[in-house]
Design a protein that fits this description.
It contains 2 helices and no strands. It is mainly α and 46 residues long. Helices cover 76% and strands 0% of the residues. α1 packs antiparallel against α2. The mean pLDDT is 96.
Length: 46
């Protein structure tokens, strides 16, 4: 299964990463890892 983000969703995700990173160094990276894991679960169990 291919998961595609709409351009608007991608921009929202990038903004969220920047916001989390501004709150605490490394938090943005952790957020991205969680999102990737969620996407993997969606691919596995659509």
């Amino acid at each position: 299964m291919v998961l595609r983000l709409r351009p608007e969703a991608r921009l929202d995700l990038e903004a969220a990463v920047r916001w989390y990173e501004a709150q605490e160094n490394g938090l943005g990276r952790m957020f991205v890892q969680e999102v990737r894991q969620a996407f993997q679960r969606i691919r596995t169990n659509p």
